Amino acid sequence: MIEKVLRDNLPIAPTHIEMQLNSTVDEAKRVLVKNFPLNQAHSRMIQLTENLAEQEGINKMITTKEPKTAQTQTFAELLTQLPEASEINLSNRTWKNYEEILESVGEASGLRISYDGKNIKIMTLSVLHEKYVRFVERLVNNLSIRKKIKLISFGSATMKVSEKERGSEPDCCFYVQNAELVAKKDSIDFSKDVPPDIVVEIDIHHASTAKFDIYSKLEVPEFWLFDGKRLIIYVLDGGSYRATKKSVGLPMLTDEILSDFLGRLEDKDQFEVLMEFEEWLEKN
């Protein structure tokens, strides 16, 4: 199946595609890199994944129990081969499709998967993206300890509610006002438990426009969005988000303060900036 999709989608003669009969995803990736400049090979790997999803069908790729040949290569294995900062968009999909992809991928690191009621978006992460995510987590946790504010972090936990047909994996999330309700929990059932008080998205490679609808439907009170230059704080108000200057859950933090310390990472390392944040905490 993979070699068929390659032949259908690559603008080169079939005789130039050197693939064995039972080609694997690794072989497909090798062919792409051999025949195209690296940036084009990456984009065509994404195209291959989306087209294979269309032609083979998500359900068959995920649920097949046959030996893993070219015809039964799983969708999850394709995803592991994508370059960092890639984005796969699968339109007109069902909740069942979304849950099957989550089950197939399991706890695989380096992916973020969301569903907005109609479309599935799968994103791969980058080193730069993770640098910002880890920094936000450390900054918030330092604030929690220094000011003795009880705060529970659940990282990028999969937030999904079948009744609302919405699901997402934030880059990080925190319970502040409702920390006591989840403090002793090892897992969260988002169909029964309260949502995080704050979710954070680092939007340096991919647009997070659909996340506004998802998080509002999941009733997340506060949404921080960083675009690489500026962090904007949004609060849920009447079913939709509006920008605000100050965090509700952590009122010491404003959009300007968070943007300032995140911006310092362009010239300084994380340790230096965290030490500067410590100094700021001592004065405030």
Write down the Rg: 21 Å
* Approximate helicity band: 40-55%
User: Helices and strands: which structural class?
Assistant: alpha+beta
Could you report the average pLDDT, rounded to the nearest whole number?
81
Residue runs with pLDDT of under 50 for 5 or more positions: 1-23, 60-73
Query: Could you name the CATH homologous superfamily of the largest domain?
Result: tt1808, chain A
Rough outline: globular
Order of helices and strands: HHHHHEHEEHEEEEHEHEEEHH
Which sequence of strands runs across the widest sheet?
4-7-8-9-10-11
How many helix segments?
11
In CATH, the architecture of the largest domain is Alpha-Beta Complex
> How many β strands by DSSP?
11
Biggest beta sheet summary: 6 strands, mixed
| Beta-strand residue percentage | 15-25%
- The first-to-last residue Cα distance is 61 Å
CATH class of the largest domain: Alpha Beta
Q: In CATH terms, what is the fold-level topology of the largest domain?
A: tt1808, chain A
Number of domains as seen in the coordinates: 2
Protein architecture, described:
With 284 residues, the protein is α+β, with helices and mostly antiparallel strands. It has two domains: 2-124, no CATH class; 127-283, tt1808, chain A (Alpha-Beta Complex), CATH 3.90.1570.10. It has helices at residues 2-9, 25-35, 38-56, 58-63, 75-80, 95-105, 127-146, 179-182, 209-217, 255-263, 270-283; strands at residues 87-90, 111-115, 120-124, 152-153, 159-161, 166-168, 172-175, 198-202, 222-226, 231-237, 240-244. It has a six-stranded mixed sheet with strand order 4-7-8-9-10-11. Strand 10 (231-237) and strand 11 form a beta hairpin. Helix 1 crosses helix 3 (38-56), helix 2 packs across helix 3 and helix 7 (127-146) packs parallel to helix 11 (270-283). Residues 1-23 and 60-73 have low confidence and may be disordered.
